[in-house]
Amino acid sequence: MNTRCRNRRSRYEPHRRAIARLRSDNRTMAMTIVPNGAGGYELKQRLLRPVVYLDHWAVRKFSENAGLQDRFIELLHKSRGTWLFSAANLSEFTVVTDLAQAEAVERLLLRAMPSLYVADTVIDHGFFFAVNPEPHSNTPDQHWMLRDLGDRAAIIGGVWNTHRFVRDAIHHQAHLRPLFDSLKQGIAVAVATVAADPENIAGARKFQPLPGMTLRGALLRELLREVVVRGAAEAFSDNDAMDFIHAASTVPVCDFVLLDSAWCHRVNSSARRMRKGGVTGVVAQCFSPKTISEFLIALDACKHLGMEVV
Questions:
Q1: Which helix (H) or strand (E) holds 31?
Q2: Which of 14, 158, 192, 208 is buried most, with the most CB atoms less than 10 Å from its CB?
Q3: For the chain (length 310 residues), average pLDDT per consecutive 10?
Q4: Is the bond preceding 50 in cis, omega lying within 30 degrees of 0?
Q5: Cβ–Cβ contacts within 10 Å for residue 199, how many?
Q6: How far apart are alpha carbons 271 and 254 in whole angstroms?
Q7: Bridge-partner residues for 225, per DSSP?
Q8: Beta bridge partners of 256
Q9: What separation in angstroms does the CA of 248 have from each of 53, 81, 217, 221?
């Protein structure tokens, strides 16, 4: 073995030992590496509760603050749950130029392994859409993020590997950023259409569940309630569109979601109105930058312990 390869393996040795401890505890892992039968490896993943989702600010916060990071990783593994990391998370870094910040996020992701689930929550079914959406000419394949991590694991012999996973998004921003900008603009246009519909305007003033309405459908409607009531579609910016993606695609699936203060308030208000209107089902508990400590307390107290999301 050459020196470069030996040094690379030694760098990952502590993580190998951590994974071995999880296996010896007979814990079910969210993500596993398996041989693909062709001399390589592939990753398989399951969404195990409690499921945690971090908005961009939260990803940065936990990657930069060592104390918060240690506590989050400790509780994540203790809970036997999953950190859901999305293509929306990755896309936020296409406007970032700080490579050191991106590398810090890669280290955080590596520490979370194997309690990690990666998904493009806009096109992978079960998140924004309950079933597979209609494909578009520019739409990537389902589970492309998982395959990307599988390729990176194969590079170093079947070991968890997040090296350059985030930095590559910055490196290829000239190609990726227009795709994400187009997605945000498309959502903003769709919101304007929703806000102009008289039926939606009438329904926004007083929540009334429609026949056959699902939890996901009710949530989408409620998250846009303020825009519809105020006729503020023209003020729904590209940033609002990204926040909408973060919230709408994860709140119906996750147990804990960290969003900015405004969207945290929207989700909690939507949940109250839905419950009052008779919509059954549970949405995620939402936390903002001011309530990070409350999030960690809630994660520590969670009793789901590795139950699979179905």
A1: strand 31-35
A2: 158
A3: 41 47 56 87 93 97 98 96 96 91 97 96 82 59 86 90 94 86 84 76 71 82 80 70 92 96 93 85 94 98 78
A4: yes
A5: 9
A6: 14
A7: none
A8: 52, 285
A9: 12, 21, 10, 10
Whole-Å CA distances, 210 to 205, 227, 272, 275, 280? 14, 20, 17, 14, 13
Reduce the DSSP state of residue 306 to 3 states and report it.
Answer: coil
Report the C-alpha gap between 63 and 28 in whole angstroms: 25
Angle at 212 between CA 262 and CA 225, to 5 degrees: 20
**How many C-beta atoms surround the C-beta of residue 304 within 10 A?**
15
Amino acid at position 38, single letter: A
Write the CA distances from 60 to 64, 101, 106, 162, integer angstroms.
Answer: 6, 8, 11, 16
Q: Which residue has the tokens 């929550």?
A: 121
Kind of pairing between the strands at 41-45 and 256-258: unpaired
Distances (CA, A) of 165 to 40, 104, 144, 150, 170: 19, 11, 12, 11, 10
